Amino acid sequence: MTLSLFWSRYTLELHERHLRDVDAMYRYVIAREKWNWFLSQIPEKEQVQILRGHNHGDESWSCRKWLDHMLEWMKENKPAAVYEAVAERVRAMEAKPIEELEKQAAHSLSQEELHMLRQAGYFRCVDAPEGEE
User: Fold this and answer.
1) What letter would DSSP give residue 133?
2) 3-state class (DSSP) for residue 94
3) pLDDT tens string for the chain (133 positions)?
4) In degrees rounded to 5, what are phi and psi of residue 62?
5) What DSSP state is assigned to residue 58?
6) What DSSP character marks residue 43?
């Protein structure tokens, strides 16, 4: 439930930025590639507890703030070695070149989605399927 809540909120944040559909899709695909592993590390019950009171209204959190609070939860509730390993992976994901993220994310896209994103100038580092160029 909270994974879908998180990604629904992220979709709304993208919509509020008035991006073209293809640009919003690209940002969503890359963000999922970066953060799904991390979100799955926090038990759903804890994610709900962390978000409580910050889901709506003036006090609502952005997805980035929610991620930061989940990382803080890990620091407070997991052994130091676990927290450090996760924090290191977060730093690595933040520093990962976009080309690497695109190559990883391309595997989760349909041929049509990849073609559309390539037409918009994204995923150029990914080999085009046969017949496309």
Assistant:
1) -
2) helix
3) 456 778 888 999 999 999 999 999 999 999 999 999 998 888 888 888 888 877 777 778 888 998 999 999 999 999 999 999 999 999 999 999 999 999 999 999 999 999 999 999 999 999 876 665 5
4) -75, 165
5) G
6) -
Give me the pLDDT at residue 131, please: 60
Distance separating alpha carbons of residues 46 and 57, to the nearest angstrom: 21
Return the residue matching tokens 């997805």: 63
The tokens describing 76, both together, are: 């407070």
Query: Tokens representing 20?
Result: 């073209």
Could you give the CA distance from residue 36 to residue 87 in angstroms, rounded to a whole number? 15
Distances from the Cα of 49 to the Cαs of 20, 44, 67, 85, 99, in angstroms? 34, 9, 13, 23, 35
Q: How would DSSP label each residue in 63-117?
A: HHHHHHHHHHHHHHHS-HHHHHHHHHHHHHHHHS-HHHHHHHHHTTS-HHHHHHH
